[in-house]
Specification:
By secondary structure, the chain is α/β, with parallel strands linked by helices. It is built from 22 helices and 18 strands. The strands form three sheets. A six-stranded parallel beta sheet has the order 2-1-3-4-6-5, with helices on both faces. Strands 9-8-7-10-11-12 form a six-stranded parallel beta sheet, with helices on both faces. The protein has a six-stranded parallel beta sheet with strand order 14-13-15-16-18-17, with helices on both faces. Helix 3 packs across helix 16, helix 11 runs antiparallel to helix 13 and helix 14 runs parallel beside helix 21.
Length: about 550
């Protein structure tokens, strides 16, 4: 077979189901091999969106997603989504084409050094220089993509190598079995937990990559400890749990931070400093136990005093078996803080003003989305509100990016989620700024006959930056824009358009969309004046003295 056919054969051997992307003339041999394959090709309208879809596939399945582009401008469009996967810990294989490397008559036309470009934003990047090397490079790329911390890898397939014949065969796929942490490290952690007066459990992104909820529930039931999550750890445990303190959407000064500031030990499961800090450490302050697949990256806001390194589920299972109940602990203060959180974060959202407040929008959506329904959040001011106020019931039902925090990923990620879980209710939630960065993927969703809801929160501005600008007492400048008629915009792609015009209408429209096939675009005007009232005035005046 030729190099392209061998490449596809190797991808089939790795269990690849989908390839997302946009081919160019340098990929035509690869595309022909793909046509004859059982792997499904999802043609997108932008390479960046293809990368977001592949990364989301990796995030949700734990298997590397795969995406394809041509050389030059196609490859450069992968930069943002590769960075998204790198910081977010999502396994992805990026495949790019290239002009012939042994003999070319086109000079330097469209040619940049893609391998060198991808070096700082991937874990592994190689140009394939002969067809016989395809099996080893594909196997190594998949191995590296899955090795903790998971992330993006890249292979460049030149046009002449794709045409070159080879008798090579795919390499056998091997499984990685990770051990639990060292017994001595777990014994010390168990002792610190047992003697803590005000322990807390933090669940972060690393705990979301494998099924850890059973082990975490067992640990909580035995110790009685209360827990909270980072934004990317949201949903690992049901936030309706009586010991849930919610999500650290802010780094400080929220109601949750009253409990954090009182804690003497924080058991930190799966935290990575690429996330916006859920709290700030200070010398001589709280003692942090770092439980993760790999050791902590130390910086000025995170320097754990004890590390327990190994497979997270196995480590938690063994740690629970040797940890006694927190007999020294006093949870009375934390119980009071939980009452404050329930009163001030999860209620008070029934205002009838229009445009709706963020709290009302979050409440209305939570009301109608089933427990296993998935929200795919783009980036913007609304993400903070959903991270803080929306109660996640199951793992990976709130897809948000708190690492690269790029705009434009919400819709592509929702498309990938719907492809993976066709029977689940999926909603993309975007600001009007972020939506327009990859709005062309509406056509992809319509072409694929997906049942999908896209909610666009409109304030005709880059709202989060505008709020920061006002908070710095700077004059408003450079952040306002106009929008298309989103109902007509949706219609032009073959989707259905809806516009919310009064309070109480949103849950009714969402229910209607859930029960009507096709892609639905719902425009929801939002009033962000609550940013100032809640995040500035209310939290400034809150008291931790109870």
């Amino acid at each position: 077979m030729n190099g392209a056919e061998l490449f596809i054969n190797c991808l089939e051997n790795e269990g690849v189901e989908y390839i997302f992307g946009i081919p160019g003339e340098e990929n035509l041999q690869f595309l022909e091999a793909l046509r004859k394959s059982d792997i499904k090709f999802v043609l997108t309208r932008h390479e960046q969106a293809a990368g977001f879809m592949a990364a989301t596939y990796g995030r949700l399945t734990g298997k590397p997603g795969v995406c394809l582009s041509t050389l030059g401008p196609g490859a450069t469009n992968f930069v943002t989504s590769a960075s998204y996967a790198l910081l977010g810990g999502m396994p992805v294989l990026f495949i790019t084409g290239q002009k012939p490397i042994k003999k070319s008559k086109q000079g330097r036309f469209q040619i940049i050094n893609v391998v060198r470009m991808m070096e700082p934003i991937t874990k592994f990047t190689r140009q394939i220089v002969n067809a016989d090397a395809v099996p080893s490079l594909v196997r190594e790329a998949f191995r590296v993509a899955l090795e903790e911390k998971p992330g993006p890898v890249h292979l460049e397939l030149p046009e002449d190598i794709a045409e070159e014949n080879s008798d090579s065969k795919p390499y056998q796929v091997t499984e990685i079995h990770r051990r639990a942490a060292a017994e001595s490290a777990m014994a010390k952690a168990a002792d610190l937990i047992h003697n803590a007066r005000h322990p807390l459990l933090l669940i972060a992104a690393g705990a979301n990559r494998k099924e850890t909820c059973h082990e975490l529930y067992e640990f909580i039931n035995k110790t009685g400890v209360y827990f909270f999550s980072t934004q990317m750890g949201k949903g690992v445990l049901d936030q309706r749990h009586p010991r849930s303190l919610g999500t650290a959407a802010l780094s400080d000064h929220d109601y949750l931070h009253c409990a954090i500031n009182r804690a003497d030990v924080i058991i930190n499961v799966g935290h990575d400093v690429v996330e916006k800090p859920p709290f700030f450490m200070t010398p001589g302050g709280v003692l942090v136990i770092h439980i993760h697949y790999y050791s902590a990256t130390v910086d000025d806001v995170y320097f754990p005093q004890h590390e327990v390194i190994g497979d997270i589920p196995r480590t938690l299972k063994e740690l629970t078996s040797i940890t006694d109940s927190c007999s020294c602990a006093d949870f009375s203060y934390i119980k009071k803080i939980k009452t404050e959180i329930d009163l001030n974060v999860y209620t008070g959202s029934d205002t009838d003003t229009f445009p709706n407040t963020p709290q009302r929008i979050v409440s209305d959506i939570r009301e109608v989305v089933p427990s296993n329904g998935i929200l795919s959040l783009d980036n913007g001011m609304f993400k903070l509100w959903f991270a803080r106020n929306y109660k996640a019931h199951e793992s990976n039902t709130v897809l948000l990016d708190n690492a690269l925090a790029t705009m434009g990923a919400g819709l592509p990620a929702a498309i990938a989620a719907k492809i993976i879980y066709p029977d689940k209710k999926i909603i993309a939630i975007c600001g009007d700024g972020g939506f327009m960065m990859n709005s062309q993927e509406l056509e992809t969703a319509v072409r694929l006959n997906l049942d999908l809801i896209v909610i666009i929160l409109t304030d005709n501005a880059y709202g989060m930056i505008k709020w920061k600008q006002v908070g710095m007492k700077l004059p408003e400048f450079g952040l306002d824009f106009g929008n298309p008629d989103f109902m007509q915009y949706a219609k032009s792609y073959g989707a259905r358009g809806h516009r919310i015009t009064k309070t109480g209408e949103l849950p009714v429209v969402i229910e209607k969309c859930f029960n009507t096939s096709g892609v639905h675009v719902v425009e929801v005007p939002v009033d962000y004046s609550e940013n100032e009232r809640v995040f500035i005035e209310e939290l400034k005046n809150r008291t931790c003295i109870l």
